[in-house]
């Protein structure tokens, strides 16, 4: 572990930079890999624990709810205890939760264990981009963020393949037990190679942390209760509690130089647009990622193993395009790259909607690959736009908001999938793909709005 405290924008060089990014990459890979594996294995898990497709989405939602509810408090905590230390805590929690997931026998047990995984993942994801901002000098942040995106895509790419391999020879608990060796390696790398960063001297605001958890938790669980039509009265109370907590949190945080809920960052136009684009894009991606395994197994009659392999072109497309995006992300505006990428993703989803029941594996794979390449073009420049538009000294808040955009989009996407499965009688999976395309195109339009300022004459 580096003894010297880094200054933001200074960055590391040579072997120190490589090893620090190796530690970040292993940590991010652990959290992303498990999320991708669980998505692919969802139909198998649902059958084994006797859960309906709509209810089984809580295996995904529990992780995302816990992550989203704790992300901003953990980002604030990381600024106080150190980004590297919080990452190590998250790795330990994630490994323990993986064992509990493997030991689960009911949907409730699995959902609770996944929630603990979500907290561990939030520790990692709330600080990973902030660490990248310290590891790379300011002029090369785009490269670091792009490499981080490659790691995320690699985890998503390996997820379906690993899920297919595991499910072909063992039962689903092993998809969680395989986290143990990777988690151990990540903890060792994080212990020795992550850099020390400046710490905030402000005390941690526990009251605001509780309000943040109640706000996100109340809104998400309340919306989910409405979606599943389970206890409308309770759902209304949860929504009211969530809204009330948000109002109180906003009042409590107003005027603070480094607020836990960084609403002030949304007052920066570039940051606000990039946040909205990220949210919409991840809504689109979860419409696809969650519904596609059911499409492949129920509509296109593929096995669980084939399903995992056929989804692999999505992250493979992201990985293949990443070297190009990494070279140009610091030079071409996000309004150009992200808009092109999301249009390509939407087109891939439209092509999937046109598949016939007798489609070949190649017909399915190349369409998914196109959508994945588009997503790989969109993400690094949009994340870079969020990070560089944030004021210096706000790396923790900006990093947390990058993950909030992703997790909130994924969570809402999962809820919309459950809503579609619950209310659409005829071919709900096709409707999900159609909504994925619409969400991608709308996000592309929002991204393109950043280009309008070029046309405004200077007076």
Could you characterize what this model shows?
78% of the residues lie in helices and 0% in strands. It has 459 residues and is mostly helical. The chain folds into two domains: 14-197 and 262-447, MFS general substrate transporter like domains (Growth Hormone, Chain: A, Up-down Bundle), CATH 1.20.1250; 206-261, no CATH class. Helix 15 runs antiparallel to helix 16 (361-389). It starts with 13 loop residues before the first helix and ends in an 11-residue tail after the last helix.
In short:
The chain is an all-alpha fold and 459 residues long. It folds into two domains: 370 residues, Growth Hormone, Chain: A (Up-down Bundle); 56 residues, no CATH class. The radius of gyration is 21 Å and the shape is globular.
Tell me how many strands there are: 0
User: Count of helices?
Assistant: 18
Instruction: Please describe the biggest sheet, giving its number of strands, its sense, and whether it closes into a barrel.
Output: none
Low-confidence stretches: 454-459
First-to-last CA distance: 52 Å
Q: What's the CATH class of the largest domain, please?
A: Mainly Alpha
| CATH architecture call of the largest domain | Up-down Bundle
Into which percent range does the helicity of residues fall?
over 70%
